Amino acid sequence: MKQPMKFILMGVNVFVFLFIFFRFGTVDANFYAAYGGLYPPLVDAGEWWRLITCTFLHANSYHLFNNMVMLFATSFYVEKALKTPKFTLLYFGSALGASLSSYLYGRNLPGFVSIGASGAVFGLVGALLFIVLRHKGRYERLSMRGMIFMLALSIYYGFASNGTDNAAHIGGAIAGFLLAALLYRPARISGQPKETDQRNTNSSSANLT
After folding, report:
1. 103 near 38, Cβ under 8 Å?
2. DSSP string spanning the chain?
3. Catalytic residue among 75, 114, 118, 204
């Protein structure tokens, strides 16, 4: 199977949601604070694994569905561009960046609990923004104008909605952009000399003249 990681990530998210639903029924923020959610007092107590586990938890089916649709749509391009190993590193790096941003924002807010994959998904959006920028404004069907509009609209929707962890969204987008800058290397067109070869050729020509 080509680009398998997005399906694995989606499968794990759906499995965790269904397991909690059928095992515990409808749960609330107190449940997620106790079981894997990003709850700053317990992170401070040493449960740093919550920075990752929180990204596989969702409040309800609507929350899950929206995140999985966005995960599929964005990872289709990002996993194709980076290939699966680098895509996996970028996804979890973005998830960690989103959770750290959320943690720093919420650590002084009483009762703050954060869950959901949207921070990591925003990391994929940030990565796509870099990839489109690296290709001078267009990558396959994506354009720079469209990417900026999508990112701005998503952030605006988050601020306009109650209970949205905007710190995670912004932190994830920044982390994804920076990680893509480190990990992404455009595929070289067959027959096109490498940049090092071009520099050497140019240098040789200059020396000859």
Report:
1. yes
2. --S-HHHHHHHHHHHHHHHHHHHH-S--HHHHHHTTSB-HHHHHTT-TTHHHHGGG--SSHHHHHHHHHHHHHHHHHHHHHH-HHHHHHHHHHHHHHHHHHHHHHHTTSTT--B--SHHHHHHHHHHHHHHHHHTTTEETTEEHHHHHHHHHHHHHHHHHSTT--HHHHHHHHHHHHHHHHHH--PPPPTTPPPHHHHHHHHHHHHHH-
3. 118
pLDDT at residue 107 in the model? 93
Query: In the prediction, which pLDDT does 1 show?
Result: 59
The catalytic residue among 58, 102, 169, 190 is 169
Active site residue 63: no
User: Is residue 94 among the annotated active site residues?
Assistant: no
**Low pLDDT (below 50) residues in the chain:** 189-209
